[in-house]
């Protein structure tokens, strides 16, 4: 791969705390239009996450980013990622290793989605989870306010074992409610991953496909040896680190465009 992923800064973003369900996080907001909650990937709201956020703002969305961990705006580094990972792994609100887990942060995100739905235009709210937060987007979709959940390379629960690899990243009760919404309300869930990405295992996508059926829309990019797009075998961050804005048919750029179209279709009303 050549070139760099789109990046940006926190310039122009408003900042205010939002409290719900016993949790408080600083939230960054920018834009106008239907609301999209963009969840950070480890180690936090990096310049690459901000690059995705600015793209969504340019597309006509109100984007809100809760700073769930890390230092907002700081660049990605191995040391910073390791330090943040160590903290989230022992955090009760994330329950990083647990299977069939209802995570307290999901209740917070559902409250945030309801608050945004009440004050922004559109039919509802989109939620994009990235990497460690990928499954949180699915958990948020328990609430009727969330109409466009996007799980990009969902990586929790983390850790070894077949049960963790196949776990959907939510509790059985939450997953059952999402399944009900796909049948009653026409809810669709989008999932993205690279083919060789062990951090977002195929078994997790198999579980989601089995439970959600055609309501689970999967974008799969090849990172197999010798793939024609130049992705390395460790390719992971579909919508951030792996995006290139040229050429126009770059597969990760196309994936970002598909996510944007999904949000417009579901939220514009």
Automatic annotation (TrEMBL):
Keyword presence, Hydrolase: yes
In what residue span(s) does the Dienelactone hydrolase domain sit? Answer: 32-154
> Which molecular-function annotations from GO does this UniProt entry contain?
hydrolase activity
Q: Which N-terminal stretch is annotated as signal sequence?
A: none
> What's the domain of life for this entry?
Bacteria
Pfam families attached to this UniProt entry? DLH
Q: Which UniProt keywords apply?
A: Hydrolase
Q: Fetch the InterPro entries from UniProt.
A: AB_hydrolase_fold (IPR029058), Dienelactn_hydro (IPR002925), Dienelactone_hydrolase-like (IPR051049)
Instruction: Identify this protein by name.
Output: Dienelactone hydrolase
User: Could you tell me which species this protein originates from?
Assistant: Streptomyces roseus
């Amino acid at each position: 791969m050549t070139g760099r992923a789109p990046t940006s800064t926190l310039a122009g973003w408003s900042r205010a705390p939002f409290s719900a369900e016993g949790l408080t996080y600083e939230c960054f907001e920018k834009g106008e239009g239907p609301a999209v909650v963009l969840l950070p990937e480890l180690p936090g709201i990096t310049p690459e996450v901000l690059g995705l956020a600015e793209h969504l703002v340019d597309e006509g969305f109100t984007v809100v980013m809760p700073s769930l961990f890390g230092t907002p705006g700081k660049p990605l580094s191995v040391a910073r990622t390791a330090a943040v990972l160590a903290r989230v792994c022992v955090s009760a609100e994330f329950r990083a290793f647990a299977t069939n887990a209802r995570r307290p942060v999901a209740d917070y995100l559902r409250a945030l989605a309801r608050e945004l739905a009440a004050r922004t235009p559109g039919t509802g709210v989109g939620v994009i989870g990235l990497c460690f937060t990928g499954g949180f987007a699915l958990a948020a979709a328990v609430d009727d306010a969330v109409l466009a959940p996007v799980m990009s390379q969902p990586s929790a629960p983390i850790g070894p074992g077949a049960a963790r690899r196949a776990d959907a990243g939510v509790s059985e009760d939450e997953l059952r409610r999402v399944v009900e919404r796909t049948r009653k309300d026409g809810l669709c869930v989008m999932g993205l991953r690279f083919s060789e990405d062990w951090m977002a295992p195929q078994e997790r996508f198999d579980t989601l496909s089995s439970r959600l059926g055609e309501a689970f829309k999967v974008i799969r990019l090849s990172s197999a040896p010798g793939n024609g797009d130049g992705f390395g075998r460790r390719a992971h961050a579909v919508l951030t680190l792996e995006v290139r804005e040229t050429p126009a048919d770059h597969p990760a750029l196309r994936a970002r465009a598909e996510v944007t179209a999904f949000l417009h279709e579901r939220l514009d009303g």
